[in-house]
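The protein record reproduced below.
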Amino acid sequence: MKKKIFKSLLIILLCTSFGVASYFVTLKMDRMKRGEDVNITVTFEDAETYVIPNTQKIDKEKALEEWPYIVHVENTGSNKGLYQIIIKDMEENTIKRDVLEYSLYLDDKEIKTGKLKDIKDNILYTYEINADTKQEYKLYIWANEEANVDKPVYEYALSFSVIKTGGPGF
């Protein structure tokens, strides 16, 4: 009876050791294949917050003639990274998202357009960046109807939430 218990414990110990060793071997192989780090830096061309230059009702074509909010994203790491662009309204705003539309460009190509009020959880966009890569975003925001306030102001900020991709077995 003692021999059966000993053999069972030995088999369980060997299986557990094999599983843990396999995990670390897979992790090491994955790191060798794709690198280990994601180093994303975000640079705002003007300021970390931005006030839309024109608060009067305009169409998209006219809005694209205005100066955009420009942000540069760079990954100097050796691994691909995933990130989210998060938009945050400033407290001093007198214009609400209900009357605002936006157009987001990545490296001078339009990638997303819509109404600000339709953005879920303030996540403007989710995208990935390869190792040793630079990207440039331009964000245009404009009013699609007249704001019924004395001093119309809409100020916002963008932030980036970085997520490393991959892992053992991916």
